[in-house]
Design a protein that fits this description.
It contains 4 helices and 66 strands. By secondary structure, the chain is an all-beta fold. It folds into 3 domains: 430 residues, YVTN repeat-like/Quinoprotein amine dehydrogenase (Methylamine Dehydrogenase, Chain H), CATH 2.130.10.10; 164 residues, Jelly Rolls (Sandwich), CATH 2.60.120.430; 199 residues, Hemopexin (4 Propeller). The strands form 19 sheets. The chain has a 5-stranded mixed β-sheet, with no helix packed on it.
């Protein structure tokens, strides 16, 4: 593990002892525990830190009552004083007051890169470029007394012939990573080694050899020392992940990253590999672009951060989450967050957040190249990411000027330490020179991500205006949105044919019809005449059957247009139409009666006998139909398109009575475009944006525009590179006018779009309201063109048909529906209409 997490996450002692003993490593060191954070840290830094006047802080260690900081600095001052105190590369200060420790003042002759707990209480390991400590030869690794800074002489390390970059204490062994080829004059080791943590003697537990430059090919590319730059030890002591400048581990391709299983007698290369770090990023400037790695407190995943270049599909300038349980030769990250061209330098993880540092200007910036692309969120140098999806949480203290960047992140039980090369937190707001502490006390918990389930209440906001329309079908085409606040025209294309006609007919599509005659009702979408269903043969003839309650008087409207150029002449296309067994259109010749390329409508009134039946018959050429509408006669019932209604539902067949939920601010729910409830908040699309408001099942809170892409404090601050920290509204907002349904689960927002059969998703965090810049399509899922509402309850996905009002369900597993939809309820099944602009489950 990196220095930060190795020392501060002390797991339960008994558990660690069992784990390490079982691995044959022993349990000499304190167990590593989770920080047990229930909130994100406070955004205002503590004043209990000294002012480090130069250089950079590379590593931070929490030694209980004191903090030890390491780097390439030489001078420090107590806060509020002008007195320089010499501290070359290593210093300690009181954690409660920030006062520099006068007793701990070791003399180190060069840069220190790592500080971690020693094998016994009151000791600390350091690693770096140094060769002497307090005048005693200690080439690259030393063990010090925390109280005095004295060298613990009983620990005598081998002479590493190159810099030590990182250390990890695994039971009774010290794991060492760096740019070296020998650990002692006679012991070859290629970037990795293990030592007895008490004596310093080299052993044969970790002998994996790292070789070859990542970028430099012998002719071109930046060239640097080959080896390990960072180590991440899982808190359970079972896995070590190594990053750095190498292409191979023990001769096998493991480009810049290798995962090791810590067994009883040896560390061995795990059955884990990825090609995602193989591409070269800014190869002329960086050999390795890996910068830091940290493990989650529960050992379930780790996060790698990098530098490099704007992403272009790589993992350059990115933070990426990797699952511990994954295996394979081409493992893929769970999520990736891109800066759009800025470096990440550091990462550490609590239960609530993945904290990242560097010199970023924006995050969620997949489409930016040194500029804010769609979805970019301003985050000056430091940020907290949602662990489930990598999106920025609301926490945003920032750090400007950015300098080279925030080089160190350390999560402890009491908060977050940040090491850097500059003097301020905020925009010149809080002077915290090169080290700052954000306490856990006073921090806020991220927004809950709990969702409601069934049995429970289903809410419908923006219910359809009460209508007498029973059916609308766009024959031969996709779903067409209504333009009169009535139900949409159901699709009937080749991929999703209408269930109301027989087989053996075909579809055809055309451009926009040039004209429609006066028989077509106002408000009818002209798109109806852009497609047709036609019958190529007379055995059997095309027929349609619509279930309608017996005794109901209905008007049947048939929308017709002759569009096929080969039948433009009168007499070239003639057919019959029968309704309920009676011919109502005999020898219909559209070209002769209304003209070619003219939309028309014919209507007939009948009383249903339980099914309204239409039959088409050949005369000359082939019968056709463009649209069918079935409407009950008489005045429609009264109602309001902005109403919000609720009904109980058991998830199967039992539907409760409908009641109205108060809409005191007269929200125009009829203009909403999908939504979902998560953790007490209703998120919904409206007016080309996402909105949020609290909802407890009875009362709506005040609506608020979701705009995390702009921040009043940071939007006007110049980044010192020609822009401000202002972000850019996510491209999802341009899709909102066409959204027909949304739901949220597991850090993702799923949605459907008008005219599309696909199910889409983006990452989404309810804490900040950030929507992921990248849109993904759920592979292999179709039949979503009719979706007018989606909600998930456990392992069941429910879909509202926006044309019929039916509610259907299917199984849900692995982030996708796994079967066909089965109708559970609907107007023709139990008299229940489920249509609305926003359909969601809530308390």
């Amino acid at each position: 593990m990196s220095p930060r997490s190795t020392l501060t996450r002390r797991a339960l002692a008994a558990l660690a002892a069992v784990t390490l003993a079982a691995a044959g490593i022993g349990a000499a060191a304190p167990a590593l525990a989770a920080p047990n954070h229930t909130t994100v840290v406070k955004a205002v830094p503590s004043t209990a830190t000294p002012d480090i006047k130069n250089g950079t802080v590379n590593a931070i260690y929490d030694a209980g009552t004191k903090i030890i900081a390491a780097g390439d600095f030489t001078t420090v001052r107590n806060r509020g004083t002008e007195v320089d105190i010499t501290r070359n590369y290593l210093l300690a200060f009181d954690k409660a007051t920030g006062t520099v420790d006068t007793a701990f003042a070791p003399t180190v002759d060069s840069e220190v890169s790592a500080v971690i707990a020693g094998p016994t209480a009151g000791t600390v390991f350091i690693g770096g470029k140094f060769n002497t400590v307090n005048g005693i030869t200690r080439r690259k690794v030393a063990l010090l007394n925390v109280s005095t800074g004295a060298v613990v002489t009983s620990f005598a390390t081998p002479a590493f012939n190159g810099a030590v970059k990182d250390l990890a204490l695994a039971g009774s062994r010290l794991l060492v990573g760096g740019i070296f080829t020998t650990a002692g004059n006679t012991t070859p080791r290629g970037g990795l080694a293990s030592l007895n943590a008490t004596t310093g003697a080299v052993d044969s537990y970790l002998t994996t050899t790292l070789t070859e430059n990542h970028n430099y090919d012998g002719v071109s590319g930046a060239s640097a020392g080959v080896g390990a730059s960072k180590l991440a030890l899982s808190p359970n002591g079972q896995v070590l992940v190594v990053i750095g400048n190498f292409k191979k581990a023990d001769g096998v391709l493991h480009d810049q990253i290798v995962r090791l299983d810590l067994g009883a007698t040896a560390a061995t290369i795990a059955a884990w590999n990825t090609t995602r770090y193989t591409p070269r990023c800014a190869w002329w400037a960086f050999d390795s672009y890996m910068r830091d790695i940290a493990y989650a407190p529960d050992s379930s995943y780790f996060v790698v951060v990098s530098t490099g270049a704007p992403n272009a599909g790589t993992l350059c300038d990115a933070a990426a989450r990797w699952e511990t349980a994954a295996t394979g030769t081409d493992v893929q990250p769970t999520w990736v967050d891109y800066t759009g061209g800025d470096t990440f330098l550091s990462v550490d993880i609590s239960e609530q957040a993945v904290y990242v540092g560097g010199h970023s200007r924006w995050l969620n910036n997949s489409f930016g190249g040194d500029s804010p692309g769609p979805g970019a969120v301003g985050r000056a140098s430091i940020a907290a990411l949602d662990p489930s999806n990598g999106l920025p949480l609301s926490w945003n203290p920032g750090r400007h000027p950015r300098g080279i960047g925030a080089s160190e992140m350390l999560v402890t039980a009491s908060g977050l330490w940040v090491g850097s090369d500059t003097a301020f937190i905020g925009n010149f707001q809080y002077r915290r020179e090169r080290i700052a502490f954000f306490p856990l006390t006073g921090g806020n918990a991220p927004h809950p991500t709990t969702t409601a389930t069934l049995p429970g209440n289903v809410y419908r906001a923006g219910v359809p205006v009460p209508t007498n329309v029973l059916y609308r079908v766009n024959a031969g085409g996709s779903t067409v949105a209504a333009t009169d606040n009535g139900p949409d025209w159901a699709g009937d294309d080749g991929g999703s044919p209408s269930p109301y006609h027989n087989t053996d007919s075909s579809t055809a599509g055309y451009g926009t019809v040039p004209t429609v005659d006066a028989t077509v009702p106002a408000g009818t979408p002209v798109a109806l005449f852009s497609s047709e269903r036609w019958d190529p043969g007379s055995a059997p003839e095309m027929s349609w059957q619509f279930p309608v309650t017996a005794g109901t008087e209905v008007e049947v409207r048939l929308y017709l247009a002759n569009r096929y150029g080969g039948t433009a002449s009168p007499g070239s296309r003639v057919f019959n139409v029968a309704l309920e067994g009676t011919t109502v259109l005999a020898n219909l010749d559209l070209s002769a009666s209304v003209g070619h390329d003219v939309g028309t409508m014919r209507s007939f009134t009948v009383v249903s006998d339980g099914s309204v039946d239409l039959d088409f018959g050949h005369v000359v050429e082939n019968p056709l139909i463009n649209g069918i509408e079935i409407v009950k006669t008489g005045p429609p019932p009264a109602g309001n398109a902005d109403d919000v209604q609720v009904r109980s539902y058991d998830g199967a067949t039992t539907v409760g009575a409908t009641s109205t939920v108060a809409n005191p601010d007269a929200t125009a729910w009829s203009t909403a475009r999908g939504g979902f409830w998560v953790g007490g908040t209703l998120f919904y699309g409206m007016n080309g944006a996402l909105w949020r408001r609290t909802f407890n099942g009875t009362t709506f809170g005040t609506p608020t525009l979701v705009d995390p892409y702009h921040d009043a404090y940071w939007d006007t601050v110049d980044t010192d590179s020609g822009q401000t920290y202002a972000g850019s509204t996510v491209n999802f907002y341009a899709e909102i006018p066409n959204v027909t349904a949304m739901f949220y689960t597991a850090g993702r927002m799923y949605y459907t779009l008008s005219g599309s059969n696909e199910l889409y998703w983006r990452w989404f965090t309810p804490d900040s309201g950030v929507v992921g810049a990248d849109r993904f399509t759920v592979a292999g899922v179709g039949g979503m063109a009719d979706a007018g509402g989606l909600f998930l309850s456990g392992t069941t996905l429910y879909k509202v048909n926006r044309s019929t009002g039916d509610l259907s369900s299917t199984a849900w597993a692995g982030g996708l529906p796994t079967g066909s939809f089965t109708v559970r309820s609907g107007p023709t099944l139990d008299g229940t209409d489920w249509r609305a602009k926003v359909v969601f489950v809530a308390p």
